[in-house]
Amino acid sequence: MLRINQLKLPVGHTYEDLNTKVFKILRTKEIKELTIVRRSIDARKKPDLFYSYIIDVKVADEKAVLKKCDKKQVSVVARESYEFPFKNVNCSKRPVIIGTGPAGLFCGYMLAQAGFKPILLERGKPVDERTKDVAAFWEGGKLNPSSNVQFGEGGAGTFSDGKLNTLVKDKYGRNKEVLSIFVKEGAKEEILYDQKPHIGTDVLSTVIKNMRERIISLGGEVRFSACVTGFVIEKELVTGVVINQNEVLDTNHVVLAIGHSARDTFEELQRIGITMEAKPFAVGLRVEHPQKLINLSQYGVEDHEILGSAPYKLTFNSENGRGVYSFCMCPGGYVVNASSETGRLAINGMSYSDRNGENANSAIIVSVTPADFGDSDALAGIRFQQKLEEKAYALANGAVPVERYGDFKVAVCGDEIPESEAISGMELTPAIKGKWQFAKVHSLLPDELNQTFVEGMESFGKVIKGFNAPEVLLEGIESRTSSPLRIFRDENLQSNIKGLYPCGEGAGYAGGITSAAMDGIKVAEELAKNLMNEENA
Q1: For the chain, first and last CA: distance in Å?
Q2: Residue ranges of the domains in the chain?
Q3: What is the pTM of this model?
């Protein structure tokens, strides 16, 4: 296989243009197969924008073609596809997976394809029913603690932008396998090669249902409204799980894909002696800008017919050692009330697949460590989150609190920082799913975090003109960025209680849809190996 690097074409090019460029580089038209490996946007000469490609090509006579072409741009590669280590097994024991977020869903999907017939337990509802519950809550209805933005089929990522990029290295091919499964179950093929792939919450819901149906068709089982409320432990070995406080399901292999918001489950795990520790994470506020402003900065035009709404990624390191960075950026998206507990308010961001909303939003978050939590307990980070969420709820009587950045900055810094230039001619109204009202958002975070947040915003204003303008909207509180704890697992991916497999973002081993799904596959591999060893013993 020959690989072409840095093949550049204007973003409006045709497929014929791509073929012509490949023919020119390789100096042949004898091509058997052409595969796009990666596509990224080159905006260095904006508003003239280009796609930069990595292309794999099969040719009839590889040596002859390689001899004629420019070897600085063309190289020989060996492409390998991922394969799960077991196929068509007949195993008497059925593994149990707690949670149907990306970690649990992909773990179950791989095990089902291999023949293990897993049982997936989800405290919430199927995604269609869940979507109705969430919409009713956003319209002023009562919060359902088991069916909301955090809990239900698909996990917290279901109501997000559906971003699928990850910084996790992929030497085993799990990342490509995750993306391939998404495409197989209904996502667009572009996610296989776009540098910043995304699905959108609307398409993701369809993919999730298709994955569930696939698991069931292969002999697996998916049970909803099935909250795991306890564990049966004998001699430091799990022998079962308790469902809804009254049903015991016997099993010796349990995947803990519980997500970062399953606080009651974390408490139960601590009670039975599971080794856990508090870990660093980040908290902050959602920031809304006009999408046209972001487009102008990133693409050089306010509206781009082909590329649509532009994303951004920003980072800043404060002198106090804290990092400030954009998180879960949603082009053309909405801020959403993502609460899961009565009397506590948390928010998140969400985009549909077309990303055509008027506003861009992102969490601008500040790093925190266990030293900030006021306790050394493994659950101290959860209590830190809960206090912030209680303040946010009280601040606007359960509605999402909103404040202009100009007012926020004056409250935090007084006259220490000069006023920013206003966004000329652009109106900015909150794009929020759920009730909202103006309030003193500056009262949510501790003083040091507020100061660091402002430092980050001012720094980002030097990168994107208008980012720190007085009209910019801030909303809080963004507290569920990642798990505030990590559950110990050994080289066999099991906790100190054997047969319990901590998995995904909630257990502290992932951050985002793709990395959680990859960890789900990783755990499925190890669990399958252990099950087969037992079966053959």
Answers
A1: 43
A2: 2-76, 96-277+484-536, 280-375+387-478
A3: 0.95
